[in-house]
Amino acid sequence: MKYNIVTIEREYASGGREIGYRTAEKLGIPYYGKEILEMAAKKKGVSPEYLEELEETPTNSFFYSVYMLSKNLIGDTPSLPENDALRLAEAEIINDLAAEGPCVIIGRCACHALRRRKDVLNVFIHSSWEARVKRAVETYGVDAANAEVVLKKFDKRRACYYNANTGKKWSAPEGYHMILDSGRLGIGKCVDILEKAVE
């Protein structure tokens, strides 16, 4: 494959998780999403639920960058705040998984964690508001009356987490190699496009 790793960031209810899973299945490679959070929780000796709550606390991206640089240069470093330690644990796990071989990784700022690799295809999945509301209600069981609130909540959470941890804007096109409209193309077509893109 031209690209060994596919990272996917996505709007809530755009079908990004399904696209990632089906792409990995077609390529015969591992798929990682919440599994990374579970691995990080195990590594830190806490529950995945606790780490999910911690994710909502923005990390200090400048401090995190300085920490990573000093870690590479001198090895021993001061202790990090919990949310920064979580981000570091996730980044290390993501790099370890990528080192093991081809895979598809959903979310968790994987595109940033793997930014020094040349064999990574970074993808952003989005869709129209109407298509996302429909999917949220029909697929995720979100109450139609609350769909707008739910979509905005999850999009804001993902954007804040990404922006804080990378210093970049979550939905900015320059952060990705490919942007796909799943509402216009359909889930299957997005999978086909990604399958061909990595060959």
UniProtKB/TrEMBL annotation:
This is Cytidylate kinase-like family protein. Keywords: Kinase, Transferase. It comes from the Bacteria. GO terms for molecular function: kinase activity.
